[in-house]
Amino acid sequence: MELLCEWCGQAAEKGENTVYWELPDGTRAIQITETPAVACEDCKMVYQTDEIIKKIEDQLFLIDTKKIGKCISYEELMALPRLLKRNYFDFS
């Protein structure tokens, strides 16, 4: 199945990039490296899908963020132990 860019509708590819995310408590931002991304050669956009954004937001809400330094890889972030099994405040 061909991946299409959400911005311009042209063919896109899976890739990775570095993102910066504010922690849920608003105390600081962290750098998340090797984050799954969509890269469009046509319009040059590189972005995260809604699915990846939700995974990051949920994980940051469910872990002890004090244990994260200034920089962490996506895989390391997703592997951190959760304090809760799921985000009970997400009603979507």
Automatic annotation (TrEMBL):
Organism domain of life: Bacteria
InterPro entries: CHP03829_YokU, Znf_MqsA-type
CDD domains the record matches: MqsA (cd12870)
Pfam (any one): YokU
Protein name: YokU family protein
Organism of origin: Neobacillus niacini
